[in-house]
């Protein structure tokens, strides 16, 4: 089993409900630092509710979320939103009156300075601002946006705007970055380009670990596209209300829970994706998480940790 310090995010016994409507039931999850975890499930199963619990905007009715900060000795419970967790939505929220560079640097300005500081410590602020812009420029160049740093959102394509939104989140160095259907509104070619961008960042994680360093990026991506989930993630989690809850003596479904948790093949960003490799796992996920007639015990397909312990994981899990 991975050491506790390698676990960056933990959901312990998360359950949530809205009045009589049960949404989540006893969701338990540990995410290893450096992973790209793909989260899939039927519409309305509570994926967004789980993300809101992790980000801290809507705390669960039962259970807790823990974050292991890289500068802390023990994990801390999530009580509210914080800079240690970032989120990027399908509909990017860029400031239309700022350039790509200014959008990405905005978070650093907001977190490290105040209006009085910028007004009355102008020389220090100018020096710090120069540092912020240099950091934002370097990040945009790594995400292949070096030619667009002075463009405004309306001058960029949808894929470019989504890259800027991801850079805007990454520059704050969150312990984990949540991606909620980030590529859902993009055309297929642009979607594949951004998938490769995530795999490039994942490759940086692998290279950091080879150097004995902590991997800098941890992602949880919610997607409805199973090929994307398997291709991008090194692990696929299925959240579903379709499980055999009657065998646990419930009279009605107590909510969605994790019914699938398995390692996924890791492919490098420039490799041709192997759909045949995905086929068996894709069908297994579809049947386990999406088929209302396939009601199995919820722990039947939770083999992730056994696979990691036996050395079947790839990438950062190797």
Structure, described:
The protein is of the alpha/beta class. The chain contains nine helices and eleven strands. Helix 2 runs parallel beside helix 5 (158-170).
Please render the helix and strand layout as text.
Layout: E1 7-18, E2 21-32, E3 36-40, H1 47-55, E4 62-67, E5 76-77, E6 85-89, H2 100-112, H3 115-120, H4 122-142, H5 158-170, E7 176-180, H6 188-210, E8 219-222, H7 226-232, E9 235-240, E10 257-263, H8 275-290, E11 301-302, H9 304-309
Parallel strand pairs: 3-8, 3-9, 6-7, 7-8, 10-11
Antiparallel strand pairs: 1-2, 1-4, 4-5, 9-10
Helix pairs in contact: 2-4, 2-5, 7-8
CATH second-level architecture of the largest domain: 3-Layer(aba) Sandwich
Q: Can you say what the CATH homologous superfamily of the largest domain is?
A: P-loop containing nucleotide triphosphate hydrolases
What's the shape? globular
Q: Helical stretch count? A: 9
Helix content: 25-40%
List low-pLDDT spans: none
CATH topology of the largest domain: Rossmann fold
The helix/strand series, from N terminus to C terminus, equals: EEEHEEEHHHHEHEHEEHEH
* CATH class category name of the largest domain: Alpha Beta
Keywords:
single chain; 318 residues; alpha/beta; Rossmann fold; 2 domains; 7-stranded mixed beta sheet; 9 helices; 21% strand; globular
Summarize the model shown:
The chain is α/β, with parallel strands linked by helices and about 325 residues long. Helix content is about 35%, strand content about 20%. The protein folds into 2 domains: about 220 residues, P-loop containing nucleotide triphosphate hydrolases (Rossmann fold), CATH 3.40.50; about 80 residues, P-loop containing nucleotide triphosphate hydrolases (Rossmann fold).
């Amino acid at each position: 089993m991975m050491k506790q310090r390698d676990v960056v995010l933990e959901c312990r016994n998360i359950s949530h409900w809205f009045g009589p409507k049960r949404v989540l039931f006893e969701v338990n999850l540990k995410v290893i630092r450096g992973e790209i975890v793909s989260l899939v499930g039927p519409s309305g199963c509570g994926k967004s509710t789980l993300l809101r619990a992790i980000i801290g905007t809507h705390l669960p009715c039962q259970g807790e979320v823990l974050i292991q900060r890289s500068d802390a000795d023990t994990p801390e419970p999530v009580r509210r939103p914080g800079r240690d967790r970032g989120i990027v939505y399908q509909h990017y929220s860029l400031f239309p009156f700022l350039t790509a560079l200014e959008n990405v640097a905005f978070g650093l300005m907001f977190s490290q300075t105040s209006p009085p500081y910028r007004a009355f410590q102008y020389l220090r602020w100018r020096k710090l601002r120069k540092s912020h812009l240099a950091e934002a420029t370097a990040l945009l160049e790594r995400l292949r946006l070096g030619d667009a740093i002075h463009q405004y959102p309306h001058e960029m394509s949808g894929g470019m705007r989504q890259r800027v939104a991801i850079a805007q989140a990454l520059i704050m160095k969150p312990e984990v970055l949540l991606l909620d259907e980030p590529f859902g509104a993009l055309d297929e070619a642009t979607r594949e380009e951004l998938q490769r961008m995530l795999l490039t960042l994942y490759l940086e994680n692998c290279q950091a670990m080879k150097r004995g360093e902590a991997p800098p990026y941890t992602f949880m991506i919610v997607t409805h596209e199973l090929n994307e989930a398997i291709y991008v993630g090194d692990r696929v989690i299925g959240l579903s209300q379709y499980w055999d809850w009657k065998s646990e003596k419930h009279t009605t479904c107590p909510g969605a829970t994790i019914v699938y948790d398995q390692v996924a093949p890791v492919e490098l960003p420039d490799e041709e994706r192997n759909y045949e490799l995905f086929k068996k796992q894709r069908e297994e996920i579809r049947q386990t998480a999406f088929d209302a007639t396939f009601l199995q015990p919820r722990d039947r397909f939770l083999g992730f940790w056994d696979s990691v312990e036996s050395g079947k994981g790839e990438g950062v899990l190797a």
